[in-house]
């Protein structure tokens, strides 16, 4: 039979967005060459390995090293949410395009590495050495062999990105414990210790301060608090 010369991937709707436009109605098919691994076929289809929760042939589980046989129909399953992370509490590293999301995660107290000029190789190295989940919208980065822990951020708007992130990982939150600027830990600072470093108007109006133990930046309940508190309240509800 003609179908016996091919291998097909059965993708759930949530993974079809990785396929080329116009080819998302059905799963892709590939010639059954008996040499390509399932990992190679997924990469050729455009589906990152980080977005795959399970692979099955005839109801039996297989892994990315499986070499599909003629006529195989591979069922691809999405990861179960909330998704586990390599460390507890979890640690994350974000690519250069996710700066707003990075700052919001830090406001929520999540250990979030982010540099505005980090290269792809630097992101991969930090993810590996510090066991951080790499968050990115760069699909090519998620296909890199060196990546062990990663997740594709599907949405473009920061509010949607944060909701997606919280649904996927459901991490424990510790709001107001990390510096939004550098990810360092925040500690209460007596007014007497910081008053020489803050504007006169701030000294008159505020008495509660926190200082970053890493970069030394000082924080107080300013005009920005209402906006940030709304983000914290939405994430905590």
From TrEMBL:
Residues annotated as domain Ubiquitin Mut7-C: 8-76
Top-rank taxon, per record: Bacteria
InterPro entries: Mut7-C_RNAse_dom, Ub_Mut7C
Keyword terms, alphabetized: RNA-binding
Residue ranges of domain Mut7-C RNAse in the record: 90-231
Coiled coil: none
Protein name: Mut7-C RNAse domain-containing protein
Source organism: Nocardioides daeguensis
């Amino acid at each position: 039979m003609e179908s016996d010369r091919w291998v097909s991937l059965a993708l759930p709707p949530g993974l079809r967005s990785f396929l080329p436009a116009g080819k998302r109605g059905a799963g892709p098919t590939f010639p059954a060459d008996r040499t390509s691994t399932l990992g190679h076929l997924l990469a050729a289809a455009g589906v990152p390995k980080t977005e795959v929760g399970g692979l099955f042939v005839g109801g039996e589980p297989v892994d990315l090293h499986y070499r599909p046989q003629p006529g195989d129909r591979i069922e691809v399953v999405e990861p179960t949410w909330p998704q586990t992370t390599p460390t507890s509490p979890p640690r994350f590293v974000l690519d250069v395009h996710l700066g707003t999301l990075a700052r919001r995660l830090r406001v929520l107290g999540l250990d979030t590495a982010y540099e505005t000029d980090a290269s792809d190789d630097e992101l991969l190295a930090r993810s590996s050495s510090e066991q951080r989940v790499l968050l990115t919208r760069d699909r090519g980065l998620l296909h890199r062999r060196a990546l062990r822990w990663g997740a594709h951020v599907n949405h473009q708007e920061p509010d949607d990105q944060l909701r997606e992130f919280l649904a996927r990982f459901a991490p424990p939150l510790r709001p107001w414990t990390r510096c939004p600027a550098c990810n360092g830990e925040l500690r209460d600072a007596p007014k007497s210790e910081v008053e020489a470093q803050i504007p006169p108007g701030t000294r008159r109006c505020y008495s509660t301060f926190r200082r970053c133990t890493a970069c030394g930046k000082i924080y107080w309940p300013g005009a920005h608090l209402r906006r940030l508190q709304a983000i914290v309240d939405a994430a905590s509800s």
